Amino acid sequence: MNCNSAIPSIRRLTLPERLLAGFILLVAASCANAAVEQETQFVFNTFSFLIWGALVMWMCAGFTMLESGSVRTKNASVICLKNIGLYSIAGLMYYFVGYNLMYTDVSGWIGSFTLLYGPSAEELALLSGDEEAKAAVIENGYSVMSDWFFQMVFVATTASIISGTMAERVKLWSFFIFTIFLAAIIYPLVGAWTWGGGWLNEMGFQDFAGSTIVHSTGGWAALAGALIIGPRLGKFRADGSVKSTPPSNIPIVTLGVFILWLGWFGFNGGSQLALGGAADAVAMSNVLVNTNLAAAAGVMAAISVSRPVLGRVDLLAGLNGAIAGLVSITAGPDIVAHYWAVIIGFVGGVICVVGMKLLESWKVDDVVGAVPAHLFAGVWGTLAVCIAAGGNFMVQLTGVLAVGVFVFLASLLLWYAIEKTVGVRVSAAVEEVGQDSAELGIESYPEFVLMPDTEDIEHLRTED
Amino acid sequence: MNCNSAIPSIRRLTLPERLLAGFILLVAASCANAAVEQETQFVFNTFSFLIWGALVMWMCAGFTMLESGSVRTKNASVICLKNIGLYSIAGLMYYFVGYNLMYTDVSGWIGSFTLLYGPSAEELALLSGDEEAKAAVIENGYSVMSDWFFQMVFVATTASIISGTMAERVKLWSFFIFTIFLAAIIYPLVGAWTWGGGWLNEMGFQDFAGSTIVHSTGGWAALAGALIIGPRLGKFRADGSVKSTPPSNIPIVTLGVFILWLGWFGFNGGSQLALGGAADAVAMSNVLVNTNLAAAAGVMAAISVSRPVLGRVDLLAGLNGAIAGLVSITAGPDIVAHYWAVIIGFVGGVICVVGMKLLESWKVDDVVGAVPAHLFAGVWGTLAVCIAAGGNFMVQLTGVLAVGVFVFLASLLLWYAIEKTVGVRVSAAVEEVGQDSAELGIESYPEFVLMPDTEDIEHLRTED
Amino acid sequence: MNCNSAIPSIRRLTLPERLLAGFILLVAASCANAAVEQETQFVFNTFSFLIWGALVMWMCAGFTMLESGSVRTKNASVICLKNIGLYSIAGLMYYFVGYNLMYTDVSGWIGSFTLLYGPSAEELALLSGDEEAKAAVIENGYSVMSDWFFQMVFVATTASIISGTMAERVKLWSFFIFTIFLAAIIYPLVGAWTWGGGWLNEMGFQDFAGSTIVHSTGGWAALAGALIIGPRLGKFRADGSVKSTPPSNIPIVTLGVFILWLGWFGFNGGSQLALGGAADAVAMSNVLVNTNLAAAAGVMAAISVSRPVLGRVDLLAGLNGAIAGLVSITAGPDIVAHYWAVIIGFVGGVICVVGMKLLESWKVDDVVGAVPAHLFAGVWGTLAVCIAAGGNFMVQLTGVLAVGVFVFLASLLLWYAIEKTVGVRVSAAVEEVGQDSAELGIESYPEFVLMPDTEDIEHLRTED
Fold it and tell me: What ipTM, to 2 d.p.?
């Protein structure tokens, strides 16, 4: 706004008049230099939540494609249903109880056990035409439900990680039961300690968009599940060798990773939580640039080290390297020295590839490599905040350990309880024939002639 | 903007000076509390149309994946061409005549028969550098073509519904001819009565983003087409049993549903039609939240009732339930009690599954279940506006019936006319071999060995 | 902002007081009519770069799907890796040197050889809490890194074009080496001459979003590569006939084109480079409308002429027609007479189909038809700027030729140098068995039974 042109010469005026003119000039100048208006800020902040939140929702499609292409064809449909189901369940549970536990009246450890969530009284008044309520609405900085929307899509990400690791053997409804508790309690508790303003936040724990809060949480829950459920039949042979279980559809795995990469701009960019002025806009730009650089470095690192570590230039390692790079930068994507993003992402990519190898040597069967990409890189990313984003190492470590111990134990307990009631794992016969036909009565690609998986059959025979 | 800091003490001034100072304070206060500036509103409104409109365009890819994965492999390419073709035709016809019929000088029943559409004279002047035209441009609230863009992408959605229902047997060019008339006349007429300000709008008919105007219109046209064209060969056997025609590629069907879900944030969110202040931003946030909750509830409802209704936990029912939930909330996504969105979406999901079963029992062959998801759930959603969004039941019913009767009859007539001229349906031989090789000379997956569809062949033999 | 209501009657005032009141009214009026505030503009401009830039990044997924579905299954994975690799490399190289060469202190022919890029000193100060730096930050119009982000995603598009043309035979690492030089030097030089403010820009060369700068550059480099590497084994038979190499997965090719179409709204819309007021918003709207109309016309043109030119209604021609329409309008998408977009896109679609036929007759093996769609249509689009967007024909032609000669020769030289060192082309044995198993040790669809490509084997035998 340029108000200066409205001010003519003031030489003809008396002193008090000049004084008044001075006021006018001050007002005018104040107009000219003014920051973004409060209501405009409100719209920017809200729109930012909605747009970036929509992109984060899109990540759920990314996980679905990644996982559906990574499993064998006989389980490609049930993983689709698990993913669309988990997104639905996560959204509903977060609406019913999760958000309140995480953000409403957080007392240090936990928020409020209130059911449902909705617009504020001021917002309802404004929508009913009460213009006087506007000031109070604007005071909040963003619309109440735009924040809810943005927070909600993060819950689903956490659950998506688990479905990947435990694919091809976890029962559909058992997975859904776990998701209910994850979205309603486990994730909101971790969130209450941190973003909700609880004890870890008060210690100064830094996790910009959730290397620990989202990705490690998902990773720990997945690891606990993988330990309870055990590896797929025949995955680790008696002679110590590992059965190759290659992805059944590489192009959609790749598509999934591109979707995740795109969605991550919303995941990290939206986590700036505001777009109401120049400083926020600058910070958000830096966040997107770092996010992209870290992912790119993760890809190149993973491709490069895959040959020495895994014995070949490995596409899947490269794709997983992108995710690891993204997870690594997620705790501190607002750094201003962008080369650190390259380094952090690069290290994340290396950690991921080595982690894939390690997990295999520990005989932990993680179908899509989610634990290395989300948990290992998540820990690295959370600690890396100390390097370039000003984190305190002991505080960051405390956060990593506290979240890790809590989520891992709670998940172990929950998976164990599910195991003792409805059971976690499908029967060997169902696993053999595939969950698609056994649990859903369909095939993912019914018209394509498929290779018989002879080894599985022989393996079972040997076991009998 | 905070102008208050510019105002010092006024105690030293004379009365008239104090009066003047009062003016200044009023101006300053007015600055401080002012709403979003008019031009800023213009940019917000326009950007909202463009961004959300781009997401609605993306829904066309969603329908394409959904349909291409749902048909048998021998028709997976031609449905791709139908979809990219329908989007192209819809956009061109809406530019040539459709938009004017729907929005320009609507007289109650119909708008203007003017060819082409373009920026306003003021906009052209502004773009030519005439700054004085800016006030008139801003007065419109949004750029002329941003609104056109947002309205255009809705037309394609309507046409996409039809291609799904009539897949695997409707001729490519016959479908394109229908699309021309749908985009140029049928849809614009329905639009003129409602969003264009015509008689249904004057009655108070409410349809926020088009449960009836878009989805039921597509559904009625699809139903008319399905009745004219008849079921696929061998779909309904003489003994009353129904031939299973499972989707050929489940992962891309799932991808399609995720794309639609994402695009629906634009579909419903953008239909707020404005983002120029706090009230709009709040409303848009509520719209996105309701959209997501209804879809989630639709998924869970459809999965849950699929076992009793369809005899198994049905992935496709679950996916279609997401769409039904989305369609159900589309007429009134601006409700502020979000639990109603859960309920409305849940009922929509149930209606969809039951509708799929009913259609089958009526021997109507709807390849992707578009009629239950878009028409049945669309009717439900339009009536559901009376529950929580203040709609009048008789008015809503009138809208449902008026649009239904008009679109169904017009479509019947049009399909009949096409049948009597170029023909609607491919020959039995083409249907047998598939439209891909017959109409396009290609195969969708030429390198994959496919199962022979022996039943079809036998069926034909029996018929001969 | 409406400040007028704050101004009461001024009749009781003395002359100087009235004068003052006049000032106040002027200030108030100036508030009321004021343009978008500078900081608000800054946020709009920045957000526009980020959102549209994210959509352009998404185009990389589009190219990946397009190419992965277009090649034979035995090469579908390696092309995925090439694409995610090229996007990573392009982003890193553009960060290391490319952007500075293109935009920093451009002297006419070339920018600065400075390593790395980052936020401005003012931005760093602002982020550190120095509010006084804000004015200088805002002065720039947009955040420094948001522009970098938007420019970065364009580089990858250029490289994506090349991977498509040279698919199924170019070595993974050789392609990566070429990409390094393309992103670090070739593309930035072309960019320096034009968008960087160099000699072509000074001549008045117009290329709004890069018909020449991006698409022709990619096309020329691809053509040079295709000439150096030669056609796939057996593509052009001794008897003059051409071996059919149909796409292996049509639905994902179609998905790829829809992704590109969506991403192009960001590509062209974001190239308005500003969203700080009504004029920019209007222009951006027109850009999106023209982009969509040209693509739609390209599809219909290509479908229509494919029967006479290629002998059948060709899906791939139709899909490529969309891309050609998009490329054609990219040099001047800001025209206000939208019917010109229809015509320009239509001609682009025809040129593409004829170009595909021509290339084949010249025995140039372009796997996805990228040269006709990006180079031929790019030349057409750059010249078409003279029709409706006020370009000067000789200037446009100079730009086309200068960029063409430079990129073609530089690429020839670079491909030749790679050929003489590490080699450009895989061995005949690798080509036979496929790059997926040879270079990556995987198969794209390992569970699907595939047709043996008997002709290839026989062809080799004949050659031996």
Answer: 0.92
